[in-house]
Amino acid sequence: MRKIKQWTAMGLATVMAMSLSACAGGKSTTETTSAAETTKAAETTSAAASDTTSGEPVEIKFSWWGGDSRHAATEEAIKAFMAKYPNITVTPEYGAWTGWEEKQSLNILGGNAADVMQINWNWIESYGQGGKSFANLEDYSDVLDLKQFSPESLELCKLDSKLMAVPISLTGRLFYWNKSAFDEVGVAIPTDLDSLYKAGEAFKAKDPDMYPLAVGEYDRMILMVYYLESKYGKNWVEEGQINYTEDEVKDGMDFITGLEEKHVIPTLATINGDMADSLDKNAKWIDGKYAGIFEWDSSASKFKKALEGSVNKPNQEFVLGDFIKMGNNNGGFTKISMAFAVPSSSKHPKEAAMLINFLLNDEEGVKIGSTERGIPCSAEGLKILQDNKLGDPLTIEANTKVMGYSKFTLDSKFEHNDLKANPDGVYFKVFGKLSAGEIDSKQAATDLVKGVTDTLEN
After folding, report:
1. Closest Cα partner for 457 from 273, 241, 263?
2. How far apart are CA 314 and CA 383, in angstroms?
3. Hey, what domains does the chain have and what are their CATH numbers?
4. Structure confidence at residue 355 (pLDDT)
């Protein structure tokens, strides 16, 4: 499994007068396929898919995670798909992210997975079993138009030369803020470390229960890597090995501890004590006690909706911030945010591939899904959003911003379950103990380097 290449080598497509990456792989839509070829391919796909409508009744399952708006849009898209193909019944299975990977990994390895799965990019390697867990989607190109995806983006989804999944979108992490909370405190939204620390002081003086930023265990790992990349200008992992010394990682751990000490972020004990399944459902976020997040551009809408739905503090303003300067380099990485896959255990892989095509390439499906899973990698899906001026403006703005700023690469095991699982993953254990004062920054660095190295070597 290859790690993500430098996306700066990839071309940028224009969406609603904004420049953003659409998994173009350095090739324009016309270079990938001409307009005539696209139309012909779509007609061929539609005709091939229509052939199944006269067949026997088929039932397939579709699983995904996300927030309420993604759930609602996906259920609407399922209804539209079933109306178009009456012989196919789709049963949805969805939920929040917490515990989702653990459940789905057992389903994949046990042969009980849904026929269509929304997966994280790293699942291909983590649960692919050398190319055996997922169907080769190239076998169903008669109903799934793969010409709409750049060869580079498809290559990233291959294992043992088999196409294990189709990429949905690219994503990266950005800072989002509750502007109303910052206005209430009377301090500027942070743009560098000095202003971030000043915000911590101001929030503490206003209300000890208020913090300018809230980050969980996995968020802390990503934020620490962002800090290290900004300061040292190196990828976190290079050629399958950690690219930082233990002293440099200790520096990153000191940075995270410093955020707690300077009242920039609450301790993990404080966040866990809030008894919320996720931060977007945390009452302190909803009511402005936690005023900032570091989140994927494809996931920010649920935080915005939760904030704007506050009963205790109505009319709060959710805004996208600048990247916080933490050094001489632009920290942060981009990745395939998620993909659609069909497990090899599926009894109806062709119909499953048809559903994927409907969601990513069909005009009706794309319009309904809009940007709920980010900016489309599909050239046809992107064009449909452009032509119809669809999509969440915040998602579009954020995707444009992160693709233009973050240039570092993500190794394929960064999100391995052994590292990011809650509560037994290395990230959760290390940052949990560090926050609780059970280990110091030096020991935290040693434990993290060992845990990541062990995962990289397995």
Report:
1. 241
2. 36
3. 7-171+335-405 (3.40.190.10), 172-333+409-457 (3.40.190.10)
4. 98
Query: Long-range contacts for 106-109 (Cβ within 8 Å, ≥24 apart)?
Result: 107/63, 108/133, 108/343, 109/133
The confidence score (pLDDT) of residue 48 equals 40
Q: Are 361 and 145 in contact (CB under 8 A)?
A: yes
Helices and strands: H and E segment counts in the chain: 20, 13
| Token representation of residue 196 | 């971030």
Q: Which residues of the chain have pLDDT under 50?
A: 2-22, 24-53
Residues shown for the chain = 458
Asked whether 249 and 228 are in contact (CB, 8 A), the reply is yes
For 140, 366, 452, the CA distances from 85, given in Å and listed in that order, are 17, 16, 46
Angle at 400 between CA 399 and CA 406, to 5 degrees: 80
Do residues 137 and 144 touch, judged by C-beta distance below 8 A?
A: yes
Beta-bridged to residue 89, according to DSSP, are 59
Pairing type for strands 58-65 and 88-95 reads: parallel
Q: Which residues, 6+ apart, have CB-to-CB distance to 266 below 8 Å?
A: 211, 214, 260, 290
Which pair of structure tokens corresponds to residue 448?
A: 């993290």
Question: Is there a cis peptide before residue 151, judged by omega within 30 degrees of 0?
Answer: no
Q: Which residue has the tokens 């790992």?
A: 221
In DSSP terms, 282 is beta-bridged to none
Parallel/antiparallel/unpaired status of strands 166-178 and 334-341: antiparallel
User: Angle, to 10 degrees, between the axis of helix 246-261 and the axis of helix 441-457?
Assistant: 130
As beta bridge partners, residue 7 has none
Contact 316, 180 (CB under 8 A): yes
Give the tens place of pLDDT for each residue, 29-54. 333 333 344 444 444 444 444 444 45
**Spatial contact of 185 and 203, defined as CB atoms under 8 Å apart:** yes
CB within 8 A of 424, min separation 6: which ones? Answer: none
Paired strand residues for 64: 94
Whole-number pLDDT of residue 298: 87
| Alpha-carbon radius of gyration of the chain | 22
Angle at 75 (CA atoms; ends 40, 316), nearest 5 degrees? 110
> Which residue intervals of 268-331 are DSSP H helices?
268-273, 283-286, 300-308
Alpha helices in 287-439 (DSSP H): 300-308, 349-360, 363-369, 379-387, 393-405, 417-420, 426-436
Q: Which amino acid is at 200?
A: G
Phi then psi dihedrals of residue 213, to 5 deg: -150, 145
Cβ-contact 324, 177 below 8 angstroms = no
Residue with tokens 């009456």: 86
Residue with tokens 């409907």: 358
